Amino acid sequence: MNKKKILVTGGTGYIGSHTVVELINQGFEVVIVDNLSNSTIDVLDGIEKITHVKPAFEKFDLCETDKVNGLFVKYPDIGAIIHFAAYKAVGESVAKPLMYYHNNILGLLNLLEVMVKNPDISLVFSSSCTVYGQPDKLPVGEDAPIKKANSPYGNTKQISEEIIQDTIHANKEIRAIALRYFNPIGAHASALIGELPIGVPQNLVPFITQQAIGLREQLSVFGNDYNTPDGSCIRDYIHVVDLAKAHVVAIKRLIENKNKSNFEIFNLGTGRGVSVLEMVNAFQKVTGIKLNYKIVGRRMGDVEKVWADTSFANKELGWKTEIGLEETLLSAWNWEKKIRNKQ
């Protein structure tokens, strides 16, 4: 297999950093581009400690067209891109839609412009289950209709997939895979990298761990009147390392020309729905720590319940999740203790 360099945009971010580790462990050379808007440069040290390799790093914003073009001049042997770099908070996107449309769409456009000129560069795109909105049928499969997005964030993922499809339709040599993933949680078993949101966490598990360690006074559970067994929202929570491994499988599929069409889509999840209150109880059980949580009103942009039908990814990619919920929550807790120097 020709192991050209892999460009990982957003590679110091949460999912990006774990994917960089898995790529290096599989023998790939990695170039990271990140503007550090939601991560820190220290992540590179964590990656190096785990893999004993320090990947090439370039700090800039993908919306800077000249710098994107210059990157591919500097690294002419980039053979594939894994594109993570995007704003990703549902609630924030409702409050700041233009910021989300500008950042998430323009960065992708700049990468695709390069790919049109260099069609041998393939793309793995970080998409999201938000493209399904509230599905009519659960678990949701890749053939489910795309519904009107519940948030500008979700809409940027829908639009991005359409842009990739249209670009491939006009440029038949370009190949891409969109990975629609569900809710990544947890941290690397080494506790050297994990989820470190800047400011107030927008996702459930970092808020849980921050409340447990005393950084947050109270955990808000948004709504207990949904049509679910305990009234709280249901999601499909996947360990970030399982998710990272799927990206490596997807990259290999493109590099080895094993893709069956020029644009493929796969769901990445566990296939199991877990409610917010179930997550709270599972965390309390695995750590022995009682959380201070309060039921509050629903949050704008949230769908009621969604979990994945993963059978297509399991069969076609030969990939499936391996890490259970309790182990995943424990890894998130170990990471939280490590970064607060309480381990």
Account of the protein in words:
- With 343 residues, the protein is an alpha/beta fold.
- The protein folds into 2 domains: 5-185 and 239-268, Rossmann fold; 204-235 and 271-308 and 317-335, UDP-galactose 4-epimerase, domain 1 (Alpha-Beta Complex).
- The protein has helices at 14-25, 43-51, 65-74, 90-95, 97-117, 152-170, 204-213, 240-255, 276-287, 311-316, 325-339; strands spanning 5-9, 30-33, 56-58, 78-83, 122-128, 176-181, 183-185, 219-222, 234-235, 237-239, 263-268, 274-275, 293-296.
- It has a 7-stranded parallel beta sheet with strand order 3-2-1-4-5-6-11, sandwiched between helices. It has a two-stranded parallel sheet with strand order 7-10.
- Strand 1, helix 1 and strand 2 form a beta-alpha-beta unit.
- The chain starts with a strand and ends with a helix.
How do the strands and helices of this protein lay out in sequence?
Elements: E1 5-9, H1 14-25, E2 30-33, H2 43-51, E3 56-58, H3 65-74, E4 78-83, H4 90-95, H5 97-117, E5 122-128, H6 152-170, E6 176-181, E7 183-185, H7 204-213, E8 219-222, E9 234-235, E10 237-239, H8 240-255, E11 263-268, E12 274-275, H9 276-287, E13 293-296, H10 311-316, H11 325-339
Parallel strand pairs: 1-2, 1-4, 2-3, 4-5, 5-6, 6-11, 7-10, 8-13
Antiparallel strand pairs: 9-12
